[in-house]
Amino acid sequence: MIEFHKVWVAQCQAAEEIGARHGAQKALGYLIGEKLVEFLRMAEGAPEWQEQLPMFIAEFKRVFSPEEIRTYLDGLRRVGPLGHVLSDDAFEGFRAACAVEDDPVGGAEDVLRVEHARRSLLAE
């Protein structure tokens, strides 16, 4: 049985496979834009997730170089499952069709999570 607070192990392995097939930026979109932001959200209220965070970050740094991480974060415009999959035009089409919920509070919280991720991932 999977201990969900340790799911980051499989996610890092999946990111390596994505990187081999589609490049580092797609892999980072998956791992930072989807998985790490969600992991940070879960860790906000669960100590078992919080204690896994340093190991997740360490594995992240093993898989990706600081330059790859910095390049991804500097170009990041949105997070979540659709964040790195859709072009800007396609994403706006989803918003216009009300297929993507506008959530300014959740968006602001995600900005803070991304900044937390940036500090953690780029710390020496």
Please tell me about this protein's structure.
This protein is an all-alpha fold and 124 residues long. The chain has one domain (4-122). It has seven helices and no strands. It has helices at 8-22, 24-43, 47-50, 53-63, 66-75, 88-96, 104-122. α1 runs parallel beside α4, α2 (24-43) crosses α5 and α2 packs across α7 (104-122). The chain is globular and about 40 Å long. The mean pLDDT is 90.
Mean pLDDT: 90
- Which percent range describes the beta-strand content? under 5%
Radius of gyration: 14 Å
The largest sheet is:
none
Shape annotation: globular
Distance between the termini: 35 Å
Helical/strand content category: mainly alpha
Tally of separate helices = 7
Number of domains: 1
Q: Helix coverage percent of residues?
A: over 70%
Beta-strand segment tally: 0
Low-confidence stretches: none
The sequence of SSEs as H and E is HHHHHHH
Write a brief caption for the model.
This protein has 124 residues and is mostly helical. The chain is built from seven helices and no strands.
Main traits of this protein?
124 residues, mainly alpha, globular, 7 helices
